[in-house]
């Protein structure tokens, strides 16, 4: 038989955590919709229960003790987890809002063009696309994220979607004059700031490690690909970013060989999301869409 938990008053815990986090009884009272006197009383009772001072009280300010700082840090994490878990449980009641965190290029070049298919298959799902998924930490406010990496994100479940392959691309007119690697070296090789090794990886695989890319640098793949579309130079494309442009003939790959980036695209989310109807439907659709692409049937 498990021993009963020995916990102090949860009201006292909430009052202390809010006061320590906000720095005052007044701010904590406003957050918890009670009076400052009530916050002060609850914190005092908690200190008596624990047998230790959590605050050093001064005339015009509230300073947590060392014990108070350690207690607040742990409590804030626990209460944040409880709030997130509560949101997940409420979402299980049937809400079908899915917030997807993705990088801006993935959103524009792969996800958004396929949302119409999702709407046709799952008309009750409301998808909210939030960009920044590749450059900011995973947000607890997101249902899921689509990220490029090695699949190791502590605290998150990761489902592999498809590999990231490197392939140079350019406008059709430019591709017509690039017949070999020396001809490629005479063109402007467009770079992406956060992926400085893409060109060297592909060139090394082609036996041309001595060539150095020295063209303009852009923050995102989407910007680099737009520059290629405009005829500025050759961009290093990453699948699936380039698939639609290649299929439509807007971009051309002068060389047929692609090289693995040694990363994959993953769907990442907190454990337990699978029980939410909206997320479960989005996940099924996404995995099917990725398999569709892998079989060469994607548009």
UniProtKB/TrEMBL annotation:
<dbReference type="Pfam" id="PF03466">
    <property type="entry name" value="LysR_substrate"/>
</dbReference>
<dbReference type="Pfam" id="PF00126">
    <property type="entry name" value="HTH_1"/>
</dbReference>
<dbReference type="InterPro" id="IPR036390">
    <property type="entry name" value="WH_DNA-bd_sf"/>
</dbReference>
<dbReference type="InterPro" id="IPR000847">
    <property type="entry name" value="LysR_HTH_N"/>
</dbReference>
<dbReference type="InterPro" id="IPR005119">
    <property type="entry name" value="LysR_subst-bd"/>
</dbReference>
<comment type="similarity">
    <text>Belongs to the LysR transcriptional regulatory family.</text>
</comment>
<dbReference type="InterPro" id="IPR036388">
    <property type="entry name" value="WH-like_DNA-bd_sf"/>
</dbReference>
<keyword id="KW-0238">DNA-binding</keyword>
<feature type="domain" description="HTH lysR-type">
    <location>
        <begin position="8"/>
        <end position="65"/>
    </location>
</feature>
<keyword id="KW-0804">Transcription</keyword>
<dbReference type="InterPro" id="IPR058163">
    <property type="entry name" value="LysR-type_TF_proteobact-type"/>
</dbReference>
<protein>
    <submittedName>
        <fullName>LysR family transcriptional regulator</fullName>
    </submittedName>
</protein>
<keyword id="KW-0805">Transcription regulation</keyword>
């Amino acid at each position: 038989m498990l021993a009963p938990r020995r916990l102090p008053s949860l009201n006292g815990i909430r009052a202390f955590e809010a006061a320590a986090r906000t720095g005052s009884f007044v701010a904590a009272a406003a957050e918890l919709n009670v009076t400052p006197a009530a916050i002060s009383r609850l914190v005092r009772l908690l200190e008596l229960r624990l047998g230790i001072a959590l605050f050093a009280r001064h005339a015009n300010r509230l300073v947590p003790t060392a014990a108070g700082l350690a207690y607040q840090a742990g409590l804030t994490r626990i209460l944040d987890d409880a709030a997130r878990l509560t949101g997940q449980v409420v979402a299980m009641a049937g809400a079908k809002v899915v917030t997807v965190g993705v990088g801006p290029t993935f959103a524009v070049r792969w996800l958004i063009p396929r949302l119409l298919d999702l709407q046709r298959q799952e008309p009750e799902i409301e998808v909210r696309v939030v960009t920044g998924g590749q450059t900011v930490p995973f947000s607890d406010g997101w249902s899921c994220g689509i990220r490029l990496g090695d699949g190791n994100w502590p605290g998150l479940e990761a489902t592999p979607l498809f590999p990231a392959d490197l392939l140079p691309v350019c406008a059709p007119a430019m591709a017509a004059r690039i017949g070999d690697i020396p001809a490629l070296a005479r063109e402007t090789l467009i770079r992406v700031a956060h992926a400085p090794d893409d060109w060297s990886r592909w060139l090394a695989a082609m036996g041309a490690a001595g060539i150095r890319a020295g063209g303009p640098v852009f923050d995102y793949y989407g910007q680099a690909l737009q520059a290629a579309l405009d005829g500025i130079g050759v961009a290093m494309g990453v699948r699936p970013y380039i698939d639609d442009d290649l299929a439509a003939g807007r971009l051309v790959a002068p060389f047929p060989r692609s090289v693995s980036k040694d990363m994959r695209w993953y769907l990442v989310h907190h454990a337990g999301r699978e029980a939410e109807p909206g997320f479960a439907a989005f996940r099924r659709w996404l995995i099917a869409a990725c398999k569709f692409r892998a079989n060469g049937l994607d548009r």
